């Protein structure tokens, strides 16, 4: 029962039902249920479509405005291009920084999990992408799969595909 516990709110654990693909939890965030290799990637339309696509369209529009500008408003058009470029970089780096912080947390969590299961740290030959792939492995197959990943130099995708008992990651950014 503890393995299915997603979050604690008002001292009541929120449990993930087993049937639907998505549900709305008490904090109004969409969460996946029953993750597997084919549906584990997180896609946030508000970010991936609206924010990134919108800032890209804004940047292209400001470039068009700059090209068509007269000498009187060249300075203003240049500032708009600069502002939209900075906004595009800010959106890109906000996502990149969140993913890097998440990767560091995953490494710490998986190293701790490996230690709890084996009383040893993860093998040092594992790289960050391999460890991220291992996070979906159940406790039963995790230590053996970590060794196999080192011995066969498996990449993240190969590790994920070789997992038999998928353990969902419902907290990713």
Short description:
With 173 residues, the chain is mostly helical. The chain is built from five helices and four strands. It has two domains: 1-34, no CATH class; 35-161.
Topology record:
Elements: E1 5-9, E2 12-15, E3 22-24, E4 30-32, H1 45-67, H2 74-118, H3 128-134, H4 142-151, H5 156-161
Antiparallel strand pairs: 1-2, 3-4
Helix pairs in contact: 1-2, 2-3
Q: What do you see in this structure?
A:
- The strands form 2 sheets. Strands 1-2 form a two-stranded antiparallel sheet. The chain has a two-stranded antiparallel ribbon with strand order 3-4.
- With 173 residues, the chain is mainly alpha-helical.
- The longest helix has 45 residues, at 74-118.
- The chain has helices spanning 45-67, 74-118, 128-134, 142-151, 156-161; strands spanning 5-9, 12-15, 22-24, 30-32.
- It is elongated.
- It folds into 2 domains: 1-34, no CATH class; 35-161.
- Helix 1 (45-67) packs antiparallel against helix 2 (74-118).
- The protein is built from 5 helices and 4 strands.
Determine the oligomeric state from the structure.
single chain
Tally of DSSP β-strands:
4
Mean pLDDT score? 81
Q: Which segments are poorly predicted (pLDDT under 50) over 5 or more consecutive residues?
A: 1-29
Distance between the termini: 24 Å
Strand composition percent: 5-15%
Q: Kindly name the structural category.
A: mainly alpha
For the structure shown, list the relevant keywords.
173 residues, mainly alpha, two-stranded antiparallel ribbon, 5 helices, 53% helix, disordered N terminus
């Amino acid at each position: 029962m503890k393995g299915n516990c997603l979050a604690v709110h008002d001292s009541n654990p929120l449990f993930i039902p087993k049937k639907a693909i998505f549900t709305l939890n008490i904090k109004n965030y969409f969460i996946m249920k029953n993750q597997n290799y084919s549906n584990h990637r997180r896609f946030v339309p508000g970010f991936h479509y609206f924010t990134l696509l919108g800032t890209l369209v804004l940047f292209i529009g400001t470039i068009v405005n700059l090209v068509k500008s007269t000498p009187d408003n060249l300075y203003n058009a240049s500032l708009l291009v600069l502002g939209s470029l900075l906004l595009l970089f800010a959106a890109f780096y906000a996502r990149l920084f969140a993913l890097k912080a998440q990767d560091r947390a995953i490494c710490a969590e998986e190293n701790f999990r490996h230690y709890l299961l084996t009383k040893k740290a993860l093998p040092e030959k594992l790289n960050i992408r391999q460890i991220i792939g291992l996070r979906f492995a159940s406790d039963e197959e995790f230590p053996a799969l970590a060794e196999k990943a080192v011995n066969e130099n498996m990449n993240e995708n190969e590790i994920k595909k070789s997992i038999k008992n998928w353990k969902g990651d419902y907290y990713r950014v």
